[in-house]
Every structure is written in C-alpha cells, then in structure tokens.
Amino acid sequence: MRRAAALPEPKAESRKLRAVCRSDLRGDAVTIAAWVSTCFGLLAGAGDALASEALARQHGCFSCHSVERKVVGPAYKDIALKYRGDAGAEARLVEKLKKGGERTWGEIFMPPMPAVPEADIKTLVKWILSLK
C-alpha cells in the first residue's frame, strides 16, 4: 500500500481555528455563542483571504509579486508593513494600481492596470494591507 505524502505545516490561522474549534464547549449559552461566533469569523476571514489571493492570480499580479518575498515588485507583506498605520494608504494604493507608479520600491515601475475593475482593485488593496 502506498503511503500518503506528509501534509505541510498548517498556517497560523489554521492552527488558531483548530484550537478554538476544539475547545471545551461545556458552559453557558454566552460562552457557546462566543465560540460559534469566533469559529465562523475565522472561517469567513480565511475565505476572504483565499478569494482575494485567487483574484490576484486571476489578474496576473503574481507575475511580479509574491505574498512572502520580492519577485519583480515587492512582497505583499512588505507593502502591508510599509503602509501599516497610514490612514490614506488604501486610497493611494488604489490609484497606484489603476494608474501605475514608479520608484517607490526601486527602479522598477508598477505598470497601470486599466483592465482590472475598480471593485477588484479595492478588494486586492484591502487584502494586501490586511497581511501580517
């Protein structure tokens, strides 16, 4: 019989979800309601992240970017770190994706993305800025 390949180490969000969802359910209705809310909230957040990553793949963003490391352009996590706490970052990044930008991250410029719908651009920017 053939052995199954080892599964990769789960991401932190997955470990947190499992820990919360396996926790002791004995207690009052408020505790149970909080547990259910947390589990569904984590699942919804994971779904949003997966959908946003799929959107980035659909529009070819991973040709130049990666979540974890620099490719041609900066890693998405580096972008999130640079703009963390900047209240105007979301609007500026939406404009940068629509119109392009240059020399923010070096000599390589960000080409304009006029074919990407604005709703998708806003979703992508929110996802990128949410990365930790």
Q: Give me the CATH architecture of the largest domain, please.
A: Orthogonal Bundle
Class by SSE composition: mainly alpha
Low-confidence stretches: 4-8, 34-47
SSE run: HHHHH
Report the radius of gyration as a whole number of Å: 19 Å
The CATH topology of the largest domain corresponds to: Cytochrome Bc1 Complex, Chain D, domain 2
Record the SSE blueprint.
Blueprint: H1 12-21, H2 29-58, H3 76-83, H4 89-99, H5 118-130
Describe the protein in words.
The chain has five helices and no strands. By secondary structure, the protein is mainly α. The chain has two domains: 11-58; 61-132, Cytochrome Bc1 Complex, Chain D, domain 2 (Orthogonal Bundle). α4 crosses α5 (118-130). Mean pLDDT is 76; it is low at 4-8 and 34-47.
Summarize the structure.
With 132 residues, this protein is mainly alpha-helical. The chain has two domains: 11-58; 61-132, Orthogonal Bundle (Cytochrome Bc1 Complex, Chain D, domain 2). It has helices at 12-21, 29-58, 76-83, 89-99, 118-130.
Provide tags for this entry.
5 helices; 0% strand; Cytochrome Bc1 Complex, Chain D, domain 2; 2 domains; mainly alpha; 55% helix; globular; 132 residues
